[in-house]
Amino acid sequence: MAGGLFFRTGSGAGAHRRRAAGRRLTALLTALSLLVYLLPGAERTAAQLGDMASDEPAAFTADEVADDDALGVVTARGNVEIVQGQRILLADTVTYNLKTEVVTASGQVSLLEPDGNVLFAEYAELTDDLAEGFIRGLRVLMIDDSRMVGTTALRTEGNRTAVQNAVFTPCALCREDPERAPLWQLKADKVVHDKDEQVIRYKNARLEFAGIPAFYTPYFDHPDPTVDKKTGFLAPSFGNSTFQGSFIDVPYFINFSNNHDLTLTPRFSTEQYLLLGLEHRYLFEDGQIVTRASGTRADLVPENGERLENVFRGDIDQEARFDFDDYFRGGWTLNRVTDKNYRRTFGSQGLDRLTSRGFVEGFRGRNYLGANTLWFQSLRPGESDAEQAIALPTIDANYVSEPGTAGGYYTFDGNVWNLMRLEGRDSKRASAVTAWNLPYTSPMGDVYRFRLGVQSDVYWVDDYDPSQPGEVNPANGESYSTARIFPQMSLEWRYPWVGPVGESSQIIEPIVHGVLAPGFDQDGDIPNEDSVDFEFDDTNIFRPDRFTGRDLIDSGSRIDYGLQYSFVSPGGLFSQAFLGQSWRPVTEGVFAPESGLDENFSDYVGRVFLQPIPEMDLTYRFRADKDDFDLRRSEATLNIGVPALRFSATYLAVDGNQDFVEGDETGFPAREEVSVGLSSRFTTYWYGSISASRDLVAGETRGVSSSIFYQDECLLFGFSHSTEFTDNVETGNNTIFTFFLTLKHLGNVVGG
User: Fold this and answer.
1) pLDDT at position 16, please?
2) Which of 7, 284, 319, 339 holds its CA 20 to 30 A away from the CA of 475?
3) Measured over all CA atoms, what is the biggest interatomic distance in the chain, rounded to whole angstroms?
4) What is the mean pLDDT of residues 206-217?
C-alpha cells in the first residue's frame, strides 16, 4: 500500500493487527517523547511528563506498508510520518513485531515535540509496555537552542534512562565553523536519570571552555526537572576581606515541604570564627514568613571603647505578610543587628538606620485605614538607640468622598500616634485634617482648584523642654497637654496658553496660588517629630502646607506665583522651565532662618529640563537668593550618550545653616558633592562601567566602583570592584573584588 493512512475501517485479522500496530506506534511516539523529556537540561514538570502517556490515537503515511502474517511483522517504509496530536515522528522505516511486541524506527529518525524540542537518531527501539527502550546516534535540539548528543540512550526497568558519552551545551555553534567547540560544554561518560528517585547522575563529568578542559568530577547529581525543591548542597561561593581573610560559603538547602524550606550557609574563613547564615521560608495560603539571620563570634570595637574579644555578633531580617481578605492585610518586619558595624564588617548591606515594623491596613475604593508600630535602630556613629522614637502605635485614616454638586468632594486625613523613647521625650497626638475641594475648568481653558480645610491637633507631651526644642533628652523636661485649631482656605489658578512656533509647539502657563489663613508663631509647646527634613523647592511651592508632617504648620496668608514654559518640536526636542516665588505679609515664627521662606519674599525656586535629542537630557533644579540670586541649592543631573558610550553626572550643592552646631538637629552643614559614571556596551556581548563620588566640602572621595562583564545566550561572567572610604573602625576603607560566572542550566560561581 503506498501512501495509505494506517488507521482505516475494516474487519478481519489483518485489520485487527493494523489497529494493534497503530496502538504500538503510538507507544513508540510516547516513549520517544519521554526520552526527550527525561534528558538532562530539558526543564519539565511532573504534570507535563504525565501528559506524555496519552491515549490520543496516531495516524501515519508512508510510501509502502507491508503486513507479513507469517512473521507477525508490520513494516512501513519510505518517508514514514507518524502524527499524534502535535507530535510528529519522521523515519525511513518503522516496524512493529506483534509476537515480541517491539516497535523500531530507523533511518533519519526525527521527533518534533509540541513545545519545539526536536530529537534526532539513527535507530530507536521500544517494547510495548514502554519499560525497555534503546536509541542509537542520539541528538537533541531544545527549544532554547540547547543541544545534547550521545552515542546511545537506554531505558530500563520502566524508570531508568541512561545516555552514554553524553555532551551537553546551551551555546550556539559558530556560523563560520560549526565544527569548532562551543564556548562551553559538559561531557560525561554516562548520564543516568532515575525517575523513581527523581535524580540525574553524572559519571566522569568534564566541563570544557572552548574545548579546553577546566573542571572534572568523577560523580555528581542533581534533582530532575520534575522536582521543584530537594534537600542538598547548593553552589558554593568564595571571597576575601581584610577582616575575615579568605572565606568560603557552603550553602545547604533543606526542603521540609512544598511550602516550607531552610537554607543554612556556614562561612569558613581564615581570620575569624565560623559564621552561620540562614534563610527560612514558610508560605501559607494567604501569606508568607521569610527570615534571614546570621551570627558569629568575633572581636568587636564599639564606639569610643576598647576592643572586646570573642563576643557574639549577628543580625536578623524577618518579613511577614498576610492577606486577611480582599480588603485587609497585615504583617511585620523585624530588622535588627547586635552592633553598628556588623553588616559593613561582614559584607552585608550598608544602611545607616534599620526599621522594624508591625502593621495592619485596609483599602476600600479610595479610602485607607492603617495601624503601624515602628521601632528604629541607628547605625550612625554617635546616635543613641535609647533616644530613637518608638511608635506604639501610629494610626492613619484617609477618606475621599464621591464628587458631589459641581464636582466638589470631601477629604479626611486622621492620625493618632503614641511616640515614646527609652530615654527622653514622649509625645501623643490626635490630629485630623478635613477639607472640601472643588476643581473647575472654565470655558476659556483656565483651571481653578479651591480648597477649604481645617486642621485640629491635640498633644500630650512628657519630658519636653520648650526652651530646648532640639534636645531629645533635656535636663529639665515637662509634662503637659496642648491643642490647636488651624483653618485654611486656598485657591489655585493656572492658564496654559498653547501656540505654534513654526512646526513646533510652545506652552506658556502662569500659575498663581493664594492662601488665606490666620498667622501665628509655631507653638513652642509642641515638639517637632515629623517636620524636621523640610526643604523649599519647586515641588512644594504650591502646596497648602509645605511641611512634611503636621507638627509644624505653614501658617499665615500668602501668595505663590510662578511661570512654566514648555517647548516641543517634531524632531524630538523637548524643554521645560519653571520659576516661582512666594510672598507673605507676616514672617515671624513660621520658617527657620536659611530656609528660603523666612522673609516676606521667598527665595526663587526653579527647574530646567532640556532634551535636545533622545540621547541627551539635562535636569537642573535650584533655589536662589531673592536679593542677589546667589544659589542656595543646586542639583543637576546629566545623561548623554548611546549604549556604546554613555556618560552620567550628578551635582549637589546646599548651603548650610550658619548657626549649625554638631548635634543640633535643627541645623545642617553645607554639602557639595559630585557623582560621575561612564558605561559602554562595547559589542553585543561585552559591557563595562565605572563610577565615582566625591565630597567637595571635605575634599574626599567617598566611593569608586567599576565592572566589566560578558553575556551571551549561554554564559555570563565578569569582574566588579568597589571601594568605600568609610569611618568603620574595624575595616577602614572597604575594598571588594568580585568575580562571577553563570552557566546556563548549571547555576553560578561567585568569588570575591
Assistant:
1) 54
2) 339
3) 115
4) 89
Statement: residue 518 has pLDDT above 50: yes
Average pLDDT over the chain, rounded to an integer: 84
Give the distance from CA 188 to its chain's centroid.
37
Q: What is the mean pLDDT of residues 381-407?
A: 90
Cβ burial of 135 (10 Å; 0-12, 13-18, 19+) is buried
d(C-alpha 54, C-alpha 176), whole Å: 42
Q: Is the peptide bond before 114 cis (omega within 30 degrees of 0)?
A: no
Cβ–Cβ under 8 Å, residues 151 and 135: no
Q: 576's torsion region: left (phi>0), alpha (psi -120 to 50) or beta?
A: beta
Query: What is the C-alpha to C-alpha distance for residues 609 and 471, in angstroms, rounded to an integer?
Result: 41
305 exposure class (CB count in 10 Å sphere: 0-12, 13-18, 19+): exposed
Rounded to the nearest angstrom, the gap between the alpha carbon of residue 275 and the centroid of all alpha carbons in its chain is: 27
Is it the case that residue 5 has pLDDT exceeding 50? no
Three-class DSSP category at 15? helix
List beta partners, residue 613. Answer: 616
The span from the CA of 472 to the CA of 70, in Å, is: 103
Per-residue pLDDT tens digits for 179-209: 888 888 889 999 887 878 877 788 999 989 8
Neighbours of 12 (CB within 10 A): 8
Rounded distance, CA 428 to CA 73, Å? Answer: 92
Of the listed ranges 141-145, 268-272, 671-675, 734-738, the one predicted with least confidence = 734-738
Class of 13-225 in CATH: mainly beta
Using only C-alpha atoms, the chain has a radius of gyration, in whole angstroms, of 36
Percent above pLDDT 70 for the chain: 86
- In single-letter form, the type of residue at position 257 comes to S
Predicted TM-score of the model (pTM):
0.75
Give the contacts of 538 (CB within 8 A, at least 6 positions apart).
Answer: 578, 580, 605, 606, 607, 621
pLDDT value, residue 98: 80
H-run or E-run covering 448: strand 447-464
Q: What angle do CA 601, 605, 611 make, to 5 degrees?
A: 160
Task: Place 33 in a pLDDT band, splitting at 50, 70 and 90.
Answer: low
Distance, CA of 193 to CA of 156 (rounded, Å): 11
Contacts of residues 111-115 at CB distance under 8 Å and 24 or more positions apart, as own/partner, are 111/29, 111/32, 111/33, 111/36, 111/87, 112/87, 112/88, 113/33, 113/36, 113/86, 113/87, 114/85, 114/86, 114/87, 115/143
pLDDT number for residue 53: 45
Residue 159: CB atoms within 10 A of its CB come to 14
